Structures are given as structure tokens and as C-alpha cells.
Amino acid sequence: MGLVGYAPYQVILLLHVLCALRAAFRLMEDNDCIVRFQQYLRIRTDHPNPDYDSAISFLSAVAQDFGLPYRKLVFIPNKPILLVTIEGQEPSLPSIFLSSHMDVVPALLDHWKFDPFAGHIDENGKIYGRGTQDMKSIGMQYLEAASRLKRMNVPLKRSIHICFVPDEEVGSTEGMGKFVETEEFRLLNVGLCLDEGVASEDDIYRIYYAERSLWWLKVIASGNSGHASTFVDDTAAEKLYYVTSKFLQMREEEKAKLLNDHCLTVGDVISANLTILSGGLHHNVVPAELAAYFDIRVPLTANFNALRCKFEQWLAEAGTNIRFEFIHKEENTTVSPNSTNNLWWRTIANVFEQLEFKYRSEVFLGGTDARYLRSKGYDAYGFSPIICTPMLLHDHNEYIECNTYLKGINTYVHLISSLANACCQIRKYLAEKYPEYETCRVAAPNRLLLISGECSSLEDIWKPCVRA
Fold it and tell me: Which of this chain's residues are annotated to bind Zn(2+) 2 (predicted)?
């Protein structure tokens, strides 16, 4: 009977009650989201001994509670992968692949305000913990967003795959690097990948369409040994000092480039950091061998061969019996489109504009699993829904605010649903503009670039159909 027969004050009272109930339900839902996130943060997936089994068990339980199908994949012993899938209404369409790594870097307890593996929330609503930014927050936001889409019965044309992988923080060769080479991955029919970005200190979201190449190298210097009270000639320390100084000088030069050109971002210059020094036997013994480890990130514009030759020249200048070896080396030259001519980028941009988000595209400063997908020809973008927050990945006191985390879930609800239905919006446009389009699409679907999600414009979509 609706509200007919109720006095005005009764209607107002009823509306107040309904609003209060809705607010209470939302508060409970938000609290549950935060609790689940805290539980994930408490699982010790830090290197060198990440507890992947516990992480997989927890994430599987969450997926099961949400009614999301999942399966565990193991290609390398003790390196499990969890794949959560929402099948789309048209599973033959290229899917949306949401990538998240389970592992985190170590944390030095003495430098943290709170236990980095407790998921502590302070009086200002900041959640502290290793992985709050890199990237346990994003993995849980994927699941929470997928759960909401399922509860709201939002139709999704494309299938969604949420993937939790190991070993991103140690190069990914036994994580995503292995997974993309498998038949299981090929069968996912991936059209687009979303991966991590970093927190933005201002109010502008960054979307990363490419990333610098990761070079981890070890410089080993050998020399004469002897008593530390004498002036031993030709020591390992002298040689290593020379080369280390060259790397640090390059670091200062690249830093100056960044500071003096406001058009540049960190992703546009070479970064070099000394991360480990090792060697020596005793306080009073001149070591026969010393080693220095460097983390170097090389931008797309760099000449890889010339840079390596520069390093070799430094070693030659330092003397004999000094060498370097690459622990990890890649040469990333692939980029994902970052213009509105691309279906995926256009869809992402439209979502951000609808949500009134400020955003810009950049080259990622570090390395992510997205590079493995780009190397295989897939479009992949890095994004973290974290703004107005210091970038604290790998730093002490890493945190994310509760409100920022919850807002990120809502952002992914919009992103995932729009990307999963992106081609359908274009189909509707073409069907209205070209009456013969639908017949052609059914007759020759593989000739349509929109089916693969690689269309550059509406005309590019239609031309293959005309040729067919």
C-alpha cells in the first residue's frame, strides 16, 4: 500500500528510520572491509620466508565467503598462485586481468611506530602495516569490489580474473614471469591488465602505461690482503670506492636533471642506489674481496648498450680484478597506449572524469608484474587509488587511511564494471549508426578489432567489418 494512509509526521519518521538503517548497514559493511584488510596484513608474507600458504588459505576463504569461484595454481613448488574468476556474460571476449602480489619486503621493527604486521589503526584512522600501499590494499580492494558487483547483480560482459601471485618483490621470475608462459594463462584470454601504481602525495591519480627497466647488479672487487695496521697496495676497497663513487656521481647528475626540469618525473631519469655492501673477515684484516650491490632503474629513453659500456669503463679505470655481474637485467621498451584512441585508456579516462578525479599518465618509477604482460603484447596499466598520502612503499611506517582504502574499493567498482562492459558501449553505438553492423559482427567476429579490445577508433572497428 506504499505510504498511503500514513500521517506526514509518520512518513518523515519512517524515512529517518530507513536512512539510519542504511547508514548503520554501510558502517557495518565498511568495518567488515577494514577488518578483512587487517587480517591480510597480519599474514607474514615478508621475505626472505613469505608464508604464501597462509595467504592463499585466507584469500580463498574470503573468495568463498563472497561466492566468488577460485582455484589454486602451482607451477613451481612453494610458489602458489590464486586465481579468482567472475565469468562474464560473453566469456569469449578478452578478459580483464587484475594482478596483485602477495609478498612484501622486510620491515625493521625498531623504525616503526607500531608492529608492521599487526594492521594497527591509530587515532587518526591510519592503518599501519607492511603492504598497506604495496600492495595488499589493492588485492583486497579487487575482492571487495568484485563482491559488491556480484551483490548488486551488475551485468558484466567480459570475464574478470583476480590474480594473487608470489615473488614480485624478488623479481617475479618464479611468479608472474612464470605464469605468463603457461597454457593456463593463455586460456584466460586476457585483453587488459591492471596492476599496482604508487601513492600520490598530491590530489592527482597517476596511471602508469610503461615502466623503467630494472637492473640489479653486483660489483665484486678483489685485491691484496694483509694486516690493517699497514698500507696494503692494490686493495679491493680502493677499487670498489672508485666505482661506487662513479655510481653515486651518476645518481646526483640524474637527480639534478629531475630537479631542474619540471616536465620530468622520476620515471624519466636513471636512478641508482647502493643497497648492500658486503665483505671482510675481521677488524684488523684488510679484505681480499668486497662487493657492492646496486639497484638501477633505466628509463625508456636510455641507450641500454651505452649505459652498460659506461659501467665497464668505470671498472677498467678502477684497475684489475674488479668485475660486475647482473643479478637481474631487463630492457623494457614496450608501452601501453595512453591516448583516447585506445579502447581501454578511453574507458579508464571516462571513469575518472565521471568520478571527477584528476589524473595523468606517467612512466612508472619502479618495476611491477605488468612488465611481463606488456612484453607479451597485452595492454597493462599500473594504478593505486591512493592520493594525498606520502609514498611509503618499502619505507618505515607504511600506512593508508581507512577512508582512502574504502574510497578505493568504490573506485574499483566503477573501473571494473566499465572495463568489463567497454566493448558493449561501442557495439551499441555502432549498431545504432550502422544497421548492418550486428549481422557482420556475428558472421565475422574475429575480423572485428573491438572483439580483441585493440581498437584504436570507432572507424578502425568498422573498417575490418566492411572488408569482411
Answer: 134, 169, 394
- Return the amino acid letter for 263: C
For residue 16, what pLDDT is reported?
59
* Phi and psi, residue 279, nearest 5°: 135, 175
Catalytic residue from among 168, 211, 268, 379: 168
In the annotation, is 103 catalytic?
yes
Give me the architecture of the 9-211+333-420 domain, per CATH: 3-Layer(aba) Sandwich (3.40)
Residue ranges in 300-342 assigned as alpha helix (H) = 304-318
Domains 9-211+333-420 and 213-329 fall in the same CATH topology = no
Q: What is the CA radius of gyration of the chain?
A: 26
Whether the CB-CB separation of 435 and 441 falls below 8 Å is answered with: no
The band of 28, judged by pLDDT with boundaries at 50, 70 and 90, is: confident
Give per-residue pLDDT as tens, 161-215: 999 999 999 999 999 999 999 999 999 999 999 999 999 999 999 999 999 999 9
Q: Per the annotation, where are the binding residues for Zn(2+)?
A: 101, 134, 169, 196, 394
Distance CA 367, CA 295 (A): 11
Catalytic position from the list 46, 103, 195, 379 = 103
Query: Does the domain made of 213-329 have the CATH classification 3.30.70.360?
Result: yes
**Can you say which residues are annotated as belonging to the binding site?**
101, 134, 169, 196, 394
Look at 135 and 452; give whichever has higher pLDDT: 135
- Residue environment code for 319-330, b if the CB has 16+ CB neighbours within 10 A, otherwise e: beebebeeeeeb
DSSP string, 93-117: SPEEEEEEE--B----GGG-SS-TT
50: phi > 0 → left, psi -120 to 50 → alpha, else beta; which? beta
- Say which DSSP state 447 is in: G
